[in-house]
Amino acid sequence: MLIRRRLSVLGFKCAGLLALALLLVGLAAETAPAQPKRGGVLRIAERSDPVGFDTLGKKKASVYTQLVLAYTHNRLFKYGPSGEVVPDLAEAYSQPSPTTYVVTLRKGVRFQPKPPVNGRELTAEDVKFTFERLPGSPEARLFPTLKSVTAPDRHTVRFELSAPSSAFVANLAATTMFIYAKEAGKPTPDGGRDYIAVDTVVGTGPFMLEEYREKQRLVLKRNPQYFETGKPYLDGVELYFIADPSAQLAALRTGRIDMVQGSSGQGVPQLLVPEARSIPGVTVLTHKTFQTSENLIGRLDMKPWSDVRVRRAASMAMDRAALMKALYPEGAEVFSGPIPANSRYAIPPDKLGEAAQFYRFDPAAAKKLLAEAGYPAGFKTKLYTTVGYGPEYVTRTELLKDMLSKVGIEASIVVQEYPVWIAATYKGNYEGLVHIPTWTLGEEEEWLGAYLPGDTRNHIHIEDGGLAEVIRSSRQAPSEPVRARHIGQFLRTFHDNMYRVFLPLPSLITVTNARVKGYVPSVRGYSYATTVVDVWLE
Fold first, then answer.
1. pLDDT tens-digit readout, 142-165
2. Preceding peptide of 338 cis, ω within 30°
3. Burial zone of 460 (CB within 10 Å; 0-12 exposed, 13-18 middle, 19+ buried)
């Protein structure tokens, strides 16, 4: 009897232990990180079509061109999860002297198996060819001291500079510096090559361009020869061109798309976040990237913007606090410029000294400055904008017009299609004022370079020899402390002269549906596609 009782108790304990073990196994299964899975097609909403497929052509490459090429091509270096510069096609680099860089390429990297390149191996000659295209491209601005590029062997590239460049390696990661295969390009009359056409898109990237229907969609499929073993996990990516963010969310709700990404510097407008959160199963990511905020500009070589008092008045007409409250309930910086607010070199608003007053909302002081500049009754002007960044961008232009009118600046809005905007107005061919979008670039030098004569983004037409010398000194600084000092000098000069009127910078919003796993928003440049290789679908 006693033995039976003990066996019964033992059986009960065993059963309890078994139940506990099963419970723990279940909990472990629930808490264990999900494992990536192969297969499936990720569908993403984009605002606009690419404008050709050449980031090193004679015209400035559009944001949307850079976004697409990040799927199909690679750079020597890229930006890592925290914005750090990490190898991409490069395996390593050395710097034998202040003006010499030697880059060693990964071995075994192949172009995509598409004609006319047909999956051949990437070599140093491809890198040499790519950099030889720079003199005819706006991207020459990134490497002003580049003297020569040679290929000592199949996997070694040697760069010689005419003067030191503190940002040289970082600029190799710029999201325009993709490596091209010569034979994929179309011959041009001057003996060069261009990559505007769809059939020239043959890179070494994780995805291959399979189909492009203008104003509809762009289809990419997995590159079976991609050099990162086992990646990408996805079979493909489809980009759907949907300009209206409300329509993007509607497509997300119905299952037509899986993601509206914000790392391009746009994403879901904050006022639509409640609508996004109402979609069953979605994840709303609030994040920041390395960018400067939207801004108001005019030409410094034309009146009235050539007068610093007018520029300061325009800034003091901006009610930034009201804009943040009305438009950005999910969070925003008061302004971000002329370099990103999260840069290690940036000067916080409360440390600007006397220049801080020009960022305060003060219509009375603005009117006084306009009167001192010879415009006691204000003035009339044009205000250019584009539909290329969505209808809400034009709405924000209307808010700028309204605030300017309160101090006597009467602006008539000119709305342009994106191709016209990027080819003319963005290049500085305008009279009046322009509403400029956020810039999502890479290294700080990309922003400083925009204030040099001849730079493709010098659409304010600044010609300041002293400021240019400060910028060049920062580029050639022999040490980090010296560079920081020069950049600080540039920033204080900028804020005092208000060359651009920077507006609040909102936190970015990315929305994904429940089946998207492993996505981490990128931090620098137009390169969110580099993180898509790690995404999988449930």
1. 998 999 999 999 999 999 999 999
2. yes
3. buried
